[in-house]
Amino acid sequence: MEPRAGRTATTFRGLGLLLALGALVLVGLLSIWVGTRGIAFTDTWSALWHPDGSETSVVIHDYRIPRTLLGVLVGMALGLSGALMQALTRNPLADPGLLGISLGSSAGVVVALAFLGVGSVLGYVWFAFAGAAVASVVVHLLGSAGRKLATPDRLVVAGAAVTAVLYAFNSAVLLLKPKAFDQFRFWTVGSLSGRSFDVLHVVLPFIAVGLVIALGLAPSLNALAMGDQVGRALGVNVGRTRVLGAVAVVLLCGAATAAAGPIGFVGLAVPHVARFVVGPDQRWVLAYSMLLAPVLLVGADVVGRVLGSPGEVQVGIITAFLGAPLFIALCRRRKLVML
User: How far is it, in rounded angstroms, from Cα 99 to Cα 121?
Assistant: First the structure.
């Protein structure tokens, strides 16, 4: 009976994954159709498949499609990095900003704006990614100081310390450079608007590599969930898994934050939804997080366009309003445990 029950559970999980994929396709089409400028669905569908250089076609192909694809990529990256962080640290409240990645990206953008005169998204995306990488390396070095391996608790403490320092640095520079603050505040709210295919091309390789690494670590993460000693007994190289996991988080969250700015609650709440649906198996948690997170992010972007019409409400604000109640509901419904 147990093998049959296992096959049934796998079948339902697979069907749920297909439903999540269908929901992602649906919100993607809505994102291409719905915008601050009203375009009939038939005209949108025609321009989508038969671009003719008209104004409608330009809006669809030059603005809405890149925005939608970037939303999908950023959502996948945030969902996977959040699930990975929670698994690596065995902390259900961990999110992609735990290792100082979000503040590291912010520091990179602040440096680019305040001292180097870089003002375009395509220009400071590289500085944001570099800032995330440097912050993560510093956190790992601090967390492993005096030891061979960085333990989850030490990484969390090191991440909190680096985050505090970076926050102070950003605040000091922006107070002294009002012009840089005017530009920075549009990035820090979290937005998908104004991003072209060029930004998409910059972050795509990093997110793709991070995605492959994260999914490949799923079996090892299942073993580590029972503790480092049990993981070693099962043949898992704990140090290698943690280092690769940290690299994946930097690639995923660093690229996502560089492209769209810091977007909260997606990487924190979505893995809990995934675990609520499929249980603690990291293979399924990572797969579901990879699909449910972009559904939330792209859907929130559509909601922001509808609520703010004829302007728009930035997606970072909408995800906070949607993600916070969802996370509170999950906290009340069940204990936040990793097993």
Answer: 24
What is the domain-level CATH number for residue 227?
1.10.3470.10
Quick one: pLDDT at residue 31? 93
Write down the pLDDT at residue 333. Answer: 61
Specify whether the CB–CB gap between 282 and 83 falls below 8 A: yes
Q: Is residue 3 part of a domain?
A: no
Q: How many whole angstroms separate alpha carbon 206 and alpha carbon 22?
A: 25
Distances (CA, A) of 210 to 164, 216, 231, 271: 26, 10, 23, 17
Eight-class DSSP state of 96: T
CB-based contact 267:85 (threshold 8 Å): yes
Sign of CA dihedral 48, 50, 51, 55: negative
Per-residue model confidence (pLDDT) at position 137: 85
Query: What DSSP designation does 50 have?
Result: S
In angstroms, rounded to a whole number, what is the distance separating the alpha carbons of residues 98 and 164?
11
Classify residue 81: in a domain, yes or no: yes
Give me the long-range contacts of 167-176 (CB less than 8 A, separation at least 24): 167/103, 169/107, 169/110, 170/103, 170/106, 170/107, 170/110, 173/110, 173/111, 173/114, 174/110, 174/114, 176/114
Q: Would 292 be classed as within a structural domain?
A: yes
Beta strand spans in the chain (E): none
Which residues of 264-314 form beta strands (DSSP E)?
Answer: none
The total number of structural domains in the chain stands at 1
In this prediction the pTM is 0.88
Are residues 219 and 283 in contact, defined by beta-carbon separation less than 8 angstroms?
yes
Walk along the chain (339 residues) in steps of 10 and give the mean pLDDT of each run: 66 91 95 84 86 85 92 95 88 75 88 85 82 86 69 77 91 88 80 85 92 92 80 81 87 87 87 89 94 95 86 86 73 55
The answer to whether residue 93 is domain-embedded is yes
Asked if 128 and 103 touch (Cβ cutoff 8 Å), the reply is no
Host domain of residue 323: 15-333
The dihedral over CA atoms of 61, 262, 308, 192, expressed in degrees to the nearest 10, equals 0
Cis peptide before 271 (omega within 30 of 0): no
Residue 37 φ/ψ, nearest 5 degrees: -105, 125
Helix axes 65-89, 282-307, angle to 10 degrees: 140
